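Backbone-to-sequence.
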């Protein structure tokens, strides 16, 4: 348990992905512009709806009105025409200008050289998380230090996905054959919940992401743990798991599925679909399609003995 706490198990969880409670700079700027847009459109709504209600009430039919007599017919007023053309144009230009400024300030923020760099690769239906400066590859959890920013390179291995951790930054797409950028600087240690925000196939809804923000010394400890290779296991290596999964320090070098070197340090299995418990791990390996129908991990029809060996080995990957 002490080890797990070092890895951030005791951190507060920001489960409610609330855009109105931003806890990082990009999300904060976007929150401010959202408030401005809401205020302007809210004011327009109140004026228009107010005029409609007033007109309905003021010009309602009264007893004694002659139903056959038409009301006075008014054709055109230059002043009114000009006003309701010019005012909306001005409002639209103000909104465009303010949005462009915020988008540019978020996008053009150039990363300082010491900033942590993370490459995030979208897969159907999980996230590959690479730390090129540390030689770490993990999945579905981005560990970052607080007190400094993390620069994200966003790529896709198959279809278009979208990175979205509402309390940290707005959506940015992960597009095949292209690299997009985003950055986050969570101020408080905690686990921030995110998800894929671009429909990417059957299990799009189970493509969940966690950002684990830790005090810098805790992040360093986590990174040191992740850099360690795993022990080899003959039973595991004899199975076809190795053609899709990498376990650092062993002959398992598959690239199609998540790197499993430190599987047990993660909170979830199947990209957030189920909690990472011993029982869930066993069920998941036995029949991935039961937990996540459509998942690209096949059921290998392992015998009970093989299943036991695989799960025991995976549980050793701390
Ligand atoms: Cu996706």
């Amino acid at each position: 348990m002490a080890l797990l706490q070092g890895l951030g198990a005791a951190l507060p969880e920001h489960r409610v992905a609330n855009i109105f409670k931003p806890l990082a700079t990009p999300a904060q700027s976007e929150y401010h512009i959202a408030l401005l847009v809401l205020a302007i459109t809210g004011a327009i709504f109140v004026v228009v709806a107010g005029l409609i209600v007033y007109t309905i009430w003021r010009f309602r039919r009264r007893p004694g009105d002659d139903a056959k007599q038409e009301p006075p017919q008014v054709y055109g007023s230059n002043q009114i025409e000009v006003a309701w053309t010019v005012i909306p144009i001005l409002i639209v230009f103000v909104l465009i200008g303010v949005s462009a400024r915020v988008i540019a300030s978020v996008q053009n923020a150039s990363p300082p050289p010491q900033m942590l760099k993370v490459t995030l690769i979208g897969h159907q239906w999980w996230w590959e998380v690479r730390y090129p400066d540390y030689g770490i590859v993990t999945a579905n959890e981005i560990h970052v230090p607080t007190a400094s920013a993390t620069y994200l390179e966003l790529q896709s291995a198959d279809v278009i996905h979208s990175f979205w951790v509402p309390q940290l930054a707005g959506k940015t797409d992960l597009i095949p054959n292209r690299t997009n950028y985003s950055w986050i600087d969570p101020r408080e240690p905690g686990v921030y919940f995110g998800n894929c925000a671009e429909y990417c196939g059957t299990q799009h809804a189970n493509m969940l992401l966690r950002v684990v923000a830790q005090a810098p010394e805790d992040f360093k400890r986590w990174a040191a743990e992740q850099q360690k290779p795993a022990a080899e296991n003959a039973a595991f290596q004899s199975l076809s798991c190795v053609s899709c999964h990498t376990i650092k320090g062993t002959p398992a070098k598959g690239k199609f599925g998540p790197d499993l070197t430190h599987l047990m340090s993660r909170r979830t299995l199947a990209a957030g679909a189920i909690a990472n418990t011993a029982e869930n791990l066993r069920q998941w390996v036995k029949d991935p399609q039961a937990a996540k129908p459509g998942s690209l991990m096949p059921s290998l029809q392992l015998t009970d003995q093989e299943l036991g060996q695989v799960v025991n080995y995976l549980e050793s990957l701390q």
